[in-house]
Amino acid sequence: MDEIKIFAPATIANISCGFDVLGCCLDTLGDEMIVRKSSVKGVRITKIIGEDLPLDTEKNVAGVAALALLKNIKEEYGFEIEIYKNIKPGSGVGSSAASAAGVVFAINELLNKPFTKLELVEFAREGERLACGSPIADNVAPAIFGGFTLVKSTNPLQIVELPSFKGLYATIIHPQIEIKTEDSRSILPRKIDLSLAVKQSANLGSLIHALHTNDYFLFSESLTDYIVEPHRSKLIPDFDKVKSNALKAGALGCGISGSGPSIFTFSKNIQTAYNVQGAINKVYEKNGIAHHTYVTKINIEGVKVL
Amino acid sequence: MDEIKIFAPATIANISCGFDVLGCCLDTLGDEMIVRKSSVKGVRITKIIGEDLPLDTEKNVAGVAALALLKNIKEEYGFEIEIYKNIKPGSGVGSSAASAAGVVFAINELLNKPFTKLELVEFAREGERLACGSPIADNVAPAIFGGFTLVKSTNPLQIVELPSFKGLYATIIHPQIEIKTEDSRSILPRKIDLSLAVKQSANLGSLIHALHTNDYFLFSESLTDYIVEPHRSKLIPDFDKVKSNALKAGALGCGISGSGPSIFTFSKNIQTAYNVQGAINKVYEKNGIAHHTYVTKINIEGVKVL
Fold first, then answer.
1. Deepest of A101, A131, A201, B193, by most Cβ within 10 A of its Cβ?
2. DSSP labels for A135-174?
């Protein structure tokens, strides 16, 4: 195989009680990429459609992730990358992670899979280092493993692959506003009450138990964020109204995707997910904020060959 | 049935990454209680063997827990309680919880089980309120449910029953020193770094995943406490040496049981648990600190009828 076309999925990170550690993979929302072997060594980005992103390998998230992988092999050839972006950078659903995860997955396939998924996450997070200054793994891990993942530790990197519910859907709403990374970071307290940390961790533990036992009620009860959402939700217009509409329409939970501005919700089935879409669209239609919404299954495969 | 004899187990709370929420139930270490119906209404403690504890119902943990239960039934008779204490109060392995959990379990049996286990925890934690000023549930929950339990929430009370490993053993060492409750509380910071809270919660999540997937390696890797142990271990002589000896002898993990001074360790099998016992005994033998050690299976039943 000399060429491969893949789907690189969007992901939700910072899922409510799982700030910095819990993420999940989406299905129909994502980029496409074509990666092909080339007789010229190195990595070249030959085409980017959909967004205005740098073609310079060293300045492109996918380029940097590919280079991190290539350091670990001895091949006489190189790779060319075409990127078809659907995920808007800065939307909060793992745009850079999709590019980074997609390219390392694709090259691994072309090389006949010498690397484990964990190693692919290691390479992909070098792309995240370029994008946000830190080699975070909470978007690239679900993009590569699929389903729900827990970043147990970043040094050494340890990823826990969690089970998922069959038939779980996400509805995402993306208000077309920009949140500066520095604002979403600086609004968080550096120190938090020990009692809140205990409540938050009990919810994370319960959520993981709920995934293992197929307990929608407990999953829903555990989707609470005492620590981050009270601060970051101030940066998102009408967050509280979106959330209350989503829950009233039957969502199992609702929170900020990544560091926003997208808002995620989970639903038990596709019909509820569409009901939630209608209910949350209303909020931004009423106040005239431009927005996109997406309804998608939870993707338990991760990046996949098209 | 007019009389019942039960075993009321010791428990470990504050298991490493699960401060205030994660506990487990022990097997051979525990109290015995005899509870019988009486034609006289109310609750009377007729005998306490093994420890000097108050016979006055209102001042006794078991008495108060029994009264909490009795408020919820309409019976024409009362109950007499005999307590045979083996668990030393103040040792950190749930002495008061055993008395409280034992008595409400026993009365529920005599009444033909009108109450759920969750309701029994509600009653029993009134005993904890008497013992420590707060209706904590992280010892009474594992005493009543058995195995590992997570206190998801205290208001409303929500308990998650976790799976356990088959064949898991605990070795407990109890140095005969007193730690004042106020000291073990006041040594804890009220605020902690957000980054530490994230690491701690990832460990709690991983530990719960490990219990569900029978993953001893991950269980062991998750038994780390970034928040409480660094402070409270200062109150326990040679804690670090006990811990390093335990881990060298093959323990899966080691930490402070409850608020101490007992130290718990977990082992994969009984032989390792005894090896750990030998290794940690050496520490206190060398420095001349009086101590007891116990080797016990994890008890997945909780309180049981004898």
1. A101
2. ---TTHHHHHH-SEEEEEEETTEEEEEE---TT-EEEEEE
- Which is it for strands B43-49 and B263-267: parallel, antiparallel or unpaired? unpaired
Tell me which CATH code domain B3-162 carries. 3.30.230.10
pLDDT digit string, tens, across residues B118-162: 999 999 999 999 998 899 999 999 999 999 999 999 999 999 999
At B255, list the tokens: 């930490």
Q: Which residues of B touch A (CB under 8 A)?
A: 17-22, 150-153, 158, 160, 162, 188-194, 197-209, 212, 218, 221-222, 227
pLDDT tens by residue, B192-231: 999 999 999 999 999 999 999 999 999 999 999 999 999 9
- Contact (CB<8Å) B151/A222: no
> Which residue is listed with tokens 């999953």?
A219
pLDDT band at A185 (very low <50, low <70, confident <90, very high): confident
Nearest Cα residue to A94 out of A131, A149, A52: A131
CATH of domain A3-162+301-305: 3.30.230.10
- Is B198 close to A20, i.e. CB distance below 8 A? yes
φ, ψ at A173 (rounded to 5°): -120, 130
What are the Cα distances from residue A234, in Å, to A91, A184, A239, B194?
16, 10, 8, 19
> Nearest chain A Cα to B221, which residue?
A152
pLDDT level of residue B180 (50, 70, 90 thresholds) = confident
Helices (H), A214-269: 216-222, 229-232, 239-248
**Under CATH, what is the fold of the domain A169-297?**
Alpha-Beta Plaits (3.30.70)
Q: Of A87, A51, A92, which Cα lies nearest the Cα of A235?
A: A92
B205: nearest CA partner in chain A: A205
Give strand pairing partners of A34: A5, A82
